[in-house]
Give the backbone structure.
Amino acid sequence: MAVAKEKRIILKYADARGYSNDLPCYLEHGGYDMLKKAVKSKPEDICEEVLKSGVRGRGGAGFPTGMKWKFLDRKSGKPIYLICNADESEPGTFKDRQIIYKDPHQLIEGMMISAYAIQAKQAFIYIRAEFFEGARILDRAIAEAKAKNLCGDNILGSGYSCEIVVHRGAGAYICGEETGLIESLEGKRPNPRIKPPYFPAVLGVYQCPTIVNNVETLCNVKHILEMGSDAFGQLGIPNNTGTRIWCVSGQVQKPGYFEFECGALTLGEMIYDVCGGLNPGRSLKAVIPGGSSAKVLRADERFTGTHKDGTDFDWGITDIPLDFDGPIAAGSMSGSGGIIVMDDSVDIVEALANINAFYAHESCGQCTPCREGSLWMRKITTRMCSGGAREEDSDLLVSVADQIEGRTICAFGEAAAWPTQSFVAKFKDEFIAKANQPAPDDDAEGPARLQLI
């Protein structure tokens, strides 16, 4: 059976020869035609099209975008805000920056249509600090659009006005969480808020109704309006409509970012057909299917269960459909779309130590289980890699992770706990084996790789 071909809609011009990221080039390719159509339509009609399209958020949770817009408190009398989450801080994920760097006006047009649909008069792009060039590109693109009356006051003579501001974060992972992002945008420490009552659609930035959407999600709005919700809904599979951008990294011959219809190919087809397979002489050991916070999947596992429609499935790791629901059925998640491939050269304990070091560093510290637990997990896995492991360390790791999961204000607790829980459960023999390695001499240096942790 032939492998599905890429269906580039959002990335259609991102790598096209001769295509530049300035406004004249974007206009030559039909840019802002959908904004012209939008401002002549009723805002509620656009919201209904997005709802009918079935598009789900591409940032991680996969929540239906139209439903999120529907929750917006429109009766409060307060201003409505739109925020584009361009923080993209999940390790293994590098798709949104491609859009920002290579086709920024597509994002601006998607934002303007979305802002008009929800009647927001102010929009923000919250961008990760490390994307300094991306921030510069966006500032230039916004200035170009404003000069052509495509954003700002009285857009295209419609009477509707909306400003966009690029807000640079400080490079904190926690700002990828929408309420932590909002706190940061307000100039405060990015401590996530308790939900309820602080659902952004009701109490968001400045305690006003706010919609927070991912870069890829907002770009989809332009294409939904162009294609119509029915045609968009025909892309992909039921409950997984449209295309999705996947990032593949790790031990594959052709890593990169790829756009396919949701569910059009399996994880195995992505690894072996699209990415050229593993490096010569290596065999597949494990895959993290949705960024570092997703639970790891072992290469020799079988995944069985029953779909929502009542049909049974029995998959190997290469059979898992690349959509929102496939990785969930296999006990993980598609998350941010970051597929991390590990072959048999990878030391699983060192891989977890690296992940734990990241989460210990990025915890905002607001919740005690996360603040203390992530640090303990880092210390334990670092000790294991340094030759000082104990027999009980693998069980201790899981115990700490279990005491974090479900006991924090935001989902960072799960993001920190799930890797440890799954790595130890799937590869416990490798963790136990570390206990049989001698501790280093007091004057000996640790493994070179741990200098990065």
Remarks:
- Residues 442-453 have pLDDT under 50 and may be disordered.
- The first helix runs from residue 23 to 28.
